[in-house]
Design a protein that fits this description.
homotetramer; globular; 278 residues
Chain lengths: 278, 278, 278, 278
C-alpha cells in the first residue's frame, strides 16, 4: 500500500474530474482528500488528491497522462521528507522558529545546511547539529559571491527548497533561475507595500495601523514572486519603528513557517504569478 | 441551460466522486465548482457541486440516487431567492445590517416579514416596505405566544429560513421542531463560553481580552446547535461591559450576515451537531 | 457640572503633565480618563483628558494656555452631537452602515445631508428623513461641479465632518483646502497598496492572500492623508476580484464607521501626516 | 541618571495624577511614558510611568508614599533582567519559542533553569547551556513531588517568574501560594471555554470555527487566574482535532511569549482576578 499526492493542472474542459476519478476508481485507490479549483479568468483547472492503494507510481502517471488532455501537467508525489537549505544573514527569529519546529518533528524536512554571508548565527545552528556554511560576501562581486553559494548548494543532492529566512542580499536573476520555483522568501512587509529598505521605517512614517509580512516564491525580483502566505498585526501610534520591527518579526516567522509547511506538503500550485493552495 | 447546486452526503466508500462525476459527464454538465470532504472520524462523505447544462432536475436526482449507495442524501437546488423571516426583540444592529444588505442586493432572499415581541423596530422596518408583525408576549404563556408566532409564520408559504436577529426569548422544543433545520441564531458570545444572561458582563468580570459572537442553527437548545460562523475582537482592560457590548454588536451583525449568506447559497451541511461549509 | 474633553499638544518638555494636572486640580475637576503620548522622534507631546466639574470653558482654556508653553495647542470641547455631511456615489454599503448606526443612536452626530453626484441612493436616504442633494457632475467641469457642492455644504452651519462614504470622484486641492482637516475618506484598499482604480482587480492580479481598507483624513491627495483606521480580511485563490470586492465592502464599512466614531468622540490628533488616537 | 518604572495603584480620588506628577516634577524627572486607568466599577486608579533622572529609588518611593493616600501601593522598579524558571512536561513548542527569543536577546530575562517531570526535553535545553532539572513524579504523591520542585526552585535566589510552558500537571494550592503572583501559565484553550482534558477534542466535537489560547497568572485554580493575553485562529470543518492541536500550538507559543514579555516589562497590574496592562 502506497500513499500518493496527485497534483494535476490543465486548461479547463468538461470531464476532467470524471477522467481523473475514473483512473483512481479503476486502480482501486482510496481518495483520502480531494480539492479542485477552476480559475475562470484564465480557464485553468487545478486538482490535488491524496490517494492510497496498491499501484506503481509510474503506471499511475502514465494512466493519468493518457486520459488527460495534452495541456495537463501531472505530478505524483510520495510523501517523504524534503531536503531544504536555509539561507540567513544575521537575524535569528525566522531561522530559530524553523529549527525549533524541525526539532519538534513538525516539519517533514531534512535541513541539509544553513548558509549565511555572516558567521553570527553559527553557534545557534551548530547546537542543532546542522552544517553552517559561512560564505562571506566581503571583497567579492555579487556574481562571485553567488557562484560560491550556488556551488555550495549544488554540493547537496536533491535540494527541494531553498528558504530565505531573512537573507538580506538581493539575488541575481541567474541565481533565481538556477533554482527556479524552489526559493521561498519572507518579505518584511505586507506586499505590495513598502518595497525596499527598512519597510518598518516607511510604515512608521506613513502612520499605518497595521503591519504584516509576506512569504512568496522568488522569481525574477526579490519581492515580486507568487504569494504563498500573508499575515498582519494591528499597531497604534505608540509603536516606534523599532517596536514595529520587533512585532513584525513575530509575523514574519509565523508566515514563513506556514509557507514552508504548505510547500513541504505539496499543497501549492503556481501559475500567472499567483498560487493556488489546497 | 439550467444551473444547479448539487449537495450529496453519504457514508464514505470508494468511488463516490467517480460515480457522481460520471453522471455529470454523461449528462454533459459543466462543473463550475466542486468541493468534497470526508470526515474520517464519522466516515461521512460530503460533496457540493455547482453545475450547468441541459438536464431536468428530477432526472438528475434520480440518476444520482440510482448510482449512489442507499445511505446517500441527494439535493439538487436551483439558485433562486430564498424566503426568510426575521425575528427580533429591541436591538436593531443585526436587523439593520440585514436590511441594508437586502437593499444593496447582496442577499439572495425575500424578507417575507419581521416578527417581534415589541413594536420598537416597526418604524425602521416599515421604511423598507417589509411587513412588521408585532406579537407581544405580555400576558401570554410561552406556549400561547409561540403558537401565535408559529401561526404567523405558517401564513407564509415556503419559508426557507427563520433568522433570529437578536430575538431575546427562549424558544421551546416545540417551536424548534416545527421549523427544524431552518432557524439561524446569533449568540451574543463566543460559544461555548458564557452561556446565559448578560454574557458581556460575565466576560467583563472574567477579564477576558477577546470577545466574540457565534451564528448557529438552533436545535433543542437556544445556544447549542451546529455552529455556522464565529468571529472575535480584541479588547483590553479599558472596556467597560457596555463598551464590550457595543463592540460585540459589530461582531454579531457581521457573523450573522455571513452565516445567512452561507445558508442562502446552500453551502452548509449539518451533521453530528456540526457543520461542513463549502 | 460640565464635562469637557481637553486636547493638548505641544513640543515636549519636562513638567507638562504636572502643569496640566495642576490646573485640573486647582479647578477641582475630576479626571474621568486621561491619555498621554510623547513621540520621541518628533519631540511632540499629546494629551487627552476627559474631566468634569464646575468651571467655565473659556476660563479653563485661558488657565491652560497661561501655564503651557507657546507651542501648545489647547482645545476644550463639550461633548455634543457633531454635524456631519455624507458624500456618496452609487454604492450603499458604507452609507447604509452609517444610517443604521445613526438610527440605533450609536453615532453622536446629526446627519445634515447626503450629497451625491447620482440620484441612485436617494430613495434609501429619504427613508431616514435625511435631505439628499443630488448634484450631477454631468456636463460640468470639475471646478464647477465642486463649486456647487461647496455651496451646498456651506449652506449648512457648523459642519464638523464631511464623510466620503464611497464618493468616487477625485477632489481638487481647492475643495480639500476649503474643508481642511474635516474630510474623512474610506479607501478601498489596504494603504499604501494598490493606489488607483479598481484596487481589487490589482490585488487579484497580484494574488494577495489578504485584502483591507483604510479610513483616513483627506489632505492634498485623495489616498494619502493621515490614516485613522485600517482592517483586513484573509482571502484565498478561490476569490474572484468581484468576491474580493464584496468582502472588501464589509471591511470598508466597518473601518469607516470606526474612524467616524473616533472623530465624533474627539479622540484623534493629526500631525506629520499621521494620527495619534486615544 | 537612572531609569525607573513607577507603578501605582490606589482607590481613586481627585488629584492623584497631580500629586504623582508633582513629585516627578520636583525631583526633576523626565516622564518617558505615562499611562493611567480608572476602573469606575471598582473605583480603582492605576498608573504606570517610566521616568529618568537623578534620584535615589528609596527617596522616590518615600516621597510618593508620603503624598499619596494610604490605600496606595507604590512600586519603583529599575529595569533589569528578571530571573525566570520554566516548567515543562513533554511538548517543546512553547519552551522552544522562549529559548529562541532568549537567544535572540528579545527577553529581558535570565533563564535560571528548566524543570520538568520528564527528561524528554533535556537535550534541547542543554543545547542552550541552561540547567535542566528532571524531577519525575513517578511513585511520588503529588505533595511529595511538588515539595521537590519547590525545593529546587528555592535553591535559586530572586526568582521573579515561574513560567508554565506546557507543564501538564495540576498544581496544588500550596504550590500556588508559595509563589503567589509569580506563576504564568499558558492554557490550551480559549478561556473560559473547554476547561479540562483535551480541549481540542472538545472543541472539535463542538464544531467550533475558532480556536485559541490564554496566558494567565495562576491563582487557586490552574485555569482560572487573571488573564494576561489571548489570541485565536480561524479553523474549518476540515481540521481534525489533531490539526487543531497543531495550529493551537502556534497560538499557545505566541500568546505565552507575549504574556511573559509584558510581565518582564512590569506592564501588568492584577486586581479582582483581572489584569490592567499598560
Amino acid at each position: 500500500m502506497s500513499q500518493y499526492r496527485v497534483l494535476i493542472d490543465a486548461n479547463d474542459e468538461k470531464g476532467l474530474v470524471h477522467k481523473v476519478s475514473s483512473i483512481f476508481y479503476n486502480y482501486n485507490l482510496n481518495i483520502l482528500s480531494n480539492s479542485e479549483f477552476v480559475d475562470k479568468e484564465s480557464n485553468k483547472f487545478f486538482m490535488r488528491s491524496v490517494v492510497d492503494g496498491d499501484v506503481d507510481k509510474k503506471e499511475l502517471i502514465t494512466a493519468l497522462e493518457d486520459i488527460l488532455p495534452e495541456t495537463a501537467s501531472v505530478k505524483v508525489i510520495e510523501p517523504k521528507k524534503k531536503n531544504i537549505i536555509l539561507m540567513v544573514t544575521k537575524e535569528l527569529h525566522a531561522l530559530g522558529d524553523i529549527l525549533i519546529r524541525h526539532e519538534a518533528g513538525e516539519l517533514d524536512a531534512n535541513i541539509l545546511a544553513v548558509i549565511s554571508n555572516y558567521d553570527k548565527l553559527e553557534s545557534l545552528v551548530k547546537k542543532f547539529d546542522i552544517p553552517y556554511l559561512s560564505i562571506s560576501h566581503e571583497n567579492l562581486e555579487r556574481a562571485q559571491h553567488e557562484s560560491k553559494i550556488i556551488e555550495a548548494i549544488n554540493n547537496f543532492e536533491d535540494v527541494d527548497y531553498i528558504v530565505l529566512a531573512k537573507y538580506m542580499r538581493i539575488l541575481t536573476p541567474h541565481f533565481v533561475e538556477e533554482f527556479a520555483g524552489k526559493i521561498i522568501n519572507i518579505h518584511h512587509s505586507f506586499l505590495p507595500a513598502f518595497i525596499g529598505a527598512n519597510p518598518y521605517k516607511q510604515a512608521y512614517d506613513r502612520g499605518v495601523k497595521i503591519i504584516g509580512a509576506t512569504a512568496h516564491f522568488v522569481n525574477n525580483n526579490l519581492d515580486e514572486g507568487p504569494i504563498i502566505a500573508q499575515d498582519v498585526k494591528h499597531i497604534n501610534h505608540a509603536y516606534s519603528w523599532q517596536d514595529m520591527q520587533k512585532l513584525g518579526r513575530d509575523v514574519e516567522k509565523v508566515v514563513l513557517s506556514r509557507a514552508l509547511k504548505l510547500a513541504l506538503e505539496d499543497r501549492i500550485f503556481v501559475y500567472a504569478n499567483k498560487t493556488v493552495i489546497f
